[in-house]
Amino acid sequence: MTKKNITTPVTRDALGALKAGDEILLSGVIYTARDAAHKRLSDMITTGKRIPLDLKNAVIYYAGPTPPRPGRAIGSCGPTTSSRMDAFTPALLKLGLRAMIGKGDRSTEVRRAIRKNASIYFLATGGIGALLSTKIISAKAVLFKELGPEAVYRLEVRDFPLIVGIDSKGRDIYDKARRKKR
Amino acid sequence: MRKINVSRIRDTVEELCLKANFELRRDILDAIRSALKKETQRRAKDILKTLIENAHIARTNSIAICQDTGMVFVYIEIGQDIRLTGGNLRKAINDGVRKAYSRGYLRKSVVSDHFFRANTKTNTPAVIVTEIVDGDKIRIAVSPKGFGSENKSRIKMLKPTASVEEMKAFIIDVVKEAGPDACPPFVLGVGIGGTFDMASGLAKRALLKPIDSVNPDKRLARLEKELTKEINSLGMGPMALGGKTTVLGVNMLEYPTHIAGFPVAVNVSCHATRSASGIL
């Protein structure tokens, strides 16, 4: 299978052509955010505060890296379990979040919100953080720095290998795998 | 009576933490290599190849195999003919963990407070289990286990009259429920018997055993083999995207239990099951 090259910022049009199961190489800017950052962003949205991150067409990567060795951009940086972010996701999609990267299943609500907002969910292979770190050119903590590994990092990635988990039409790679099993 | 200064335990724990995080266990790597030969689906093969490549990059560059460098489980067996000198044992172990996580650029993932989630910034405290055994040696095993898989671990207090088939069905359900989130192919540690806490402790300890070792208990050896076969026939495969490799191995430990009970704990571990051990 040939891998499609996708560059950020990702637009609705670029995503429209992708189907669940497609393999892509992502290049450009993405932001890490995991449990604590999601909770904080969600609290800000709930209380009507302006969130300090432009989510319009943004890509969020559910990840918390290890610290970089001197001279390196970043340490090990693979995906964490996406479903823990499910409760916070629809609100972020509403604000323009275009793509998410993580590992594992998503809830029905998230799948619906992805279709409604024409966004996308990518799978990264879990447990290969050392390999994935070689695809990250730069990393900088930009928000909630006090959270350490849970801070929001701005990452510049090149040819980051991903599989489309849920496409903009709401088709889910794991649904297909499950159906096949039955 | 043999005297051992706790500073030696501290230094050993430090080295073992680094080794476990950078060098994928030989038995795990061997199991991934042999799974690669059996897989026929392209995607399953591709994923297994990346696991091998990842292990190589981690070892060569001393970078963590997985960014979730875990909450460290330390299992220490102390010979009863030993006298520990030079300070507090728990402090020494935690000092070793702290030094490794700082020196090795490993992620500090431990929070001290469940409600305010304050990071201790040292990856301590470790979860420490001490066992007093015969002799004058100390055996230390460390396992930095990530929570993607720890979150999917389960225990069930079966009825004492439950059949072996019911036990197997529970274990298989745990695997199905763990699904893609816990990074298959898995290693399963299964603890049977004892009490609620004992069973889960056994399940964790079972993960420390090499997966290519043969269980000395013939019944358990047979069960491990059967479960491996049955789980691999589920078709989940690497990252649950299809394939023949859903578990790399199943390890069981058991202990006597009460007439009214049949506790079974399953500690689910990912394809990057990490541990290292040493003897003083």
**What would you say the CATH architecture of chain A is?**
Alpha-Beta Barrel
pLDDT below 50 for ≥5 consecutive residues: which ranges of chain A? none
Order of helices and strands of chain B: EHHHEEHEEHEHEHHEEE
In which range does the helix fraction of chain A lie? Answer: 25-40%
Which percent band covers the strand fraction of chain A? 25-35%
Return residue spans of chain B where pLDDT drops below 50 for at least 5 consecutive residues. Answer: none
**How helix-rich are the residues of chain B, as a percent range?**
25-40%
Average pLDDT value of chain A? Answer: 94
Tell me the distance between the termini of chain A.
Answer: 26 Å
Structural class of chain B: alpha/beta
Largest sheet of chain B: 4 strands, mixed
User: What is the CA-CA span between the terminal residues of chain B?
Assistant: 14 Å
- Secondary structural class of chain A: alpha/beta
CATH superfamily of chain A: Fe-S hydro-lyase, tartrate dehydratase beta-type, catalytic domain
Highest-level CATH class of chain A: Alpha Beta
Strand content bin of chain B: 15-25%
Walk me through the structure.
The complex is a heterodimer of chains A (182) and B (280). Chain A is 25% helix and 26% strand. Chain A is built from 6 helices and 7 strands; from the N terminus they run βαβαβαβαβαββα. Chain A is globular. Chain A is an alpha/beta fold and 182 residues long. Chain A has a 5-stranded mixed beta barrel with strand order 2-3-4-5-7. The two termini of chain A are 26 Å apart. Chain A has one domain: fumarase. Chain B is α/β, with parallel strands linked by helices and 280 residues long. Chain B has 2 domains: 2-24 and 65-145, no CATH class; 147-275, no CATH class. Helix content of chain B is 39%, strand content 25%. Chain B contains 8 helices and 10 strands. Chain B has helices at residues 6-22, 26-38, 42-61, 89-103, 147-150, 164-178, 196-206, 218-232; strands spanning 2-5, 71-79, 82-85, 127-133, 138-145, 154-158, 186-194, 247-257, 262-269, 276-279. In chain B, α2 runs antiparallel to α3. The longest helix of chain B has 20 residues, at 42-61. The radius of gyration of chain B is 19 Å and the shape is globular. Chain A binds chain B through residues 1, 36, 63-69, 75-78, 80-83, 103-105, 123, 125-131, 133-134, 147-150, 163, 173-174, 177, 180-181, and chain B through 42, 47, 50-51, 53-55, 57-58, 61-69, 105-109, 117, 119, 121, 148, 151, 179-183, 234-236, 239-242, 270-272.
